[in-house]
Amino acid sequence: MRRVNGTALILAALVATVGALAFPIWSYASRSGTGQANLNAATVATQWGPLSASDRDFVVRVRLAGLWEIPAGQQAMERAPTKAIRDAGDHLVVGHTDLDQRVRSVAAKLGVELPNQPNAQQQGWLDELTAASGKDYERKFANLLRDAHGKVFALLAQIRHTTRNSLVRELATDANQTVLDHITMLENTGDVDFDAIANEAANGATASPTGPPPPNGQAPDTPEPALPTGSPDATSRPSAESTADEGRTINTDRPAPTS
Hints:
Number of helices: 8
Helix content: 55-70%
Order of helices and strands: HHHHHHHH
Strand content: under 5%
């Protein structure tokens, strides 16, 4: 009797082991709770390609950005004592008015409902700017807007990389140009606290830093220039302006959105 029980236990253990080994072989695409299943569950078909929950969230975020940055920019144009801040405000107003036209067109085609008021956090930033004055106002304006644009920059890259919807991809491209222009204009004010931005990002990071070792006080070897072989008949020109140009902006000249 003991021998039979022992054999049964061994067989049960073998079955459990085989089951455990086979478990990872199952297709995760059909299991709930996985990234792929979540993507499929939240995605709808459109004539411009699949529209995911992340795509829809991005469209709403573009709209929200304009709802607080247009009044913030207008306030800077009217209140700021320095030209650099007024110029940055001008770019915010012009850029987001244009981008708002684009996002409303995209949302209408995709059936995405858009908000008509900034969210609570954005309204708080507007109230903070309204309550400030003088140099304190300029610092708050430059840093609140620069920090917000820097964070959305990462989102833009992710959406542009992963979306399967052509309208969302086009909107991400347009928004990328606008955000980069605004980041540049805000940095041109000279009021951006880069230490604060870096510290905030570092506090939220989980991975260890990587890269080459720190400088040792000696000049490194001069690298060879990266050049094409032969003489290709290239006709394009670099999109970036020289970093030596003071007050440079980003070219955002692009066709008007289609209705």
